[in-house]
Amino acid sequence: VQLQASGGGLVQAGGSLRLSCAASGRDGSTYVMGWFRQAPGKEREFVASISRSGLNTDYADSVKGRFTCSRDKRKTTVYLQMNSLIPEDTALYYCAAKYTRLVHETTRDYTIWGLGTLVTVSS
Length: 123
What we know:
The chain is built from no helices and 11 strands. By secondary structure, it is mainly beta. The strands form 2 sheets. Strands 2, 4, 5, 6, 9, 10 and 11 form a 7-stranded mixed sheet that branches. It has a 4-stranded antiparallel sheet with strand order 1-3-8-7, with no helix packed on it. Strand 5 and strand 6 (57-59) form a beta hairpin.
């Protein structure tokens, strides 16, 4: 499966952005999917995960209550709705996928990575 992330941009603190990640190739609905980010000079960190069913999610503490991860009905596109953005959210955001037979599994461990989309939050 190939992953294509989009939706990044420049936004003021307190604003919102929605990132999208489309899975193409093999059946994207058979993958648990997630989001990671890497800020300048820092290691890549987990942001969110969503199960195949779309019913189960997992979030990093730093984004809980501000970010929401969802999947479309076909389960091949995932979204990351980011609200109340702060400058510390500035990073290159990556989507990731991992094949699983478990419909309700979330994970922080992935095997497939897409190219990133840049999010810049100005103060």
